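Recall the central idea of this unit: under ordinary conditions, the amino acid sequence of a chain determines the structure it adopts. In this exercise we apply that idea directly, starting from the sequence alone.
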Amino acid sequence: MNTNTNLNTGASFEVTLLAAGAIFAYGVWMGRRDLGLRAALGVLGASLWSLLPVGLWFLGLGGGLHPGALPLLIGVGWVLAFALSFLPVYVAVNWLEVIRWETRPRE
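Accordingly, the structure predicted from this sequence is:
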């Protein structure tokens, strides 16, 4: 019996986990574990925005729209999902700058 589970999450979920782990490891490496943890949680929180296009799909199924608008909403949802899939990487790079700024040598 095969007990493997496939969540079918797509590449953006793996990239988000990689970015969160990498920014946490960088924070620990630079001696600011607190900033690394906040950064990792921020990256994971930014990945929740990828659920926004699902709301467009449910809006189209709600019945309040013209039936011809559903394909348009699905198309906009796909484009929006693609654009929002880069948001966690953007947040991770921003946190990278914050950690670098906080750990720089002071004069």
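The two ends are 64 Å apart (CA to CA).
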